[in-house]
Amino acid sequence: MVILHTHGHDTGSGEWRPFGCVEDLDIDFTTKDRPALVTMLLASCGSPREPEFWWSQAVAVRIVALLRLLASTESIDHLRLLARCRQPECMERFEFELPIAALSDSVPQGDTVQVRLKDELSIVLRRPNGRDLSEWRNLRPPSRRAAIEAMLGSLVVEGHASHEDELALAEALSAQDPLVAFTVSCICPACGATNEVRVDLEDIVLDKLRRKQRALVREVHRLASHYGWTEAEVLAIPPHRRTHYLTMIESER
Known about the structure:
This protein is of the alpha+beta class.
């Protein structure tokens, strides 16, 4: 069982070409610069195909865009994931699904979040975007507190936050922008306990596309070795037809 707390608006379906063209083999999934990798994927496969557009998009919008890219690539409408029950006497592994459409509906409205603090103080934060992620990564703060201070310092647009307010602001921003720090409530089918499972949606999609790229390289290698085709010629063949060729190659062994 999965409980999704969603709000906000639909960001639109967009136009997505499936990941798997010859130029996708050039994407470096080994890079440590995740914001740049996400931007490259979205600009390559999405619309518009302009990196600056995707850098300027809110983090939640970028996550939903990645999910739609994966849905287009794998022809799926659900993410199927594994978790382990956290009850010491259980520790059972179980599977759960996340509907991509419901995740897309979790993108909140508006570009800002208003947070009321003690003494009736009010702080307005803007939602982080791709460019923020890149700048924070380059800062390399020495501690978690320094990281939160730098992040909030760049996001506060109205009001003044003290050190004592930083945790409350970070928690409020996460609560009102759920895809950024996504958590799912799952009931263990073995013991019935409720588990709060942290799900890094961005990392999941990147891992699946990384595996897709590796599978494509293997297909290219086998078909090019057998038929003498180039990378472009192999990947120009629809996937179902490539499967037929690979099956015939296997049958000849």
